[in-house]
Here is the input.
Amino acid sequence: GQVNPILDRFTYHLAYAAEMAGYHILTFIQPLEEPQAVYDDLSRAGRLDAFILAGIKYDDPRVNLLLERKFPFAGFGRSNPELNFPWVDVDGYGGVKKAVLYLIERGHRRIGFVGWGEDLSATFSERLKGYETALKEVGLPIP
Here is the structure.
């Protein structure tokens, strides 16, 4: 598994708020094979009120399944822009843009960008846009 301090804090505060409202949180690790099978089983069982999805990617089968079923869910992260569902996310665009401008203000001109692949997630796409926007604003070439 992966360690994710942001998601860990989110999960803690989510569980705390749910407890204060009289609800309980069920957490589980998504299986590597047929990941949507768990969501299919749990949404049909009638024992859950909603899902909160993390690690959402473009064309995420979980999102599509739950939208098709009209089963309530929210995302910690985003999927395809044309899909309409509630989500929260970090401001990757603003954060990366601010970081790049900070480096430029300190005289740096050759600033790289490292990520995991634009076609995988909205988080990556937003961070890349922030990087490119900052370079464009000051007239630096985009590598």
Summary: The chain has two domains: 5-88, 92-137. The first strand starts at residue 51 and ends at 54. The beta strands are 51-54, 73-76, 87-88.
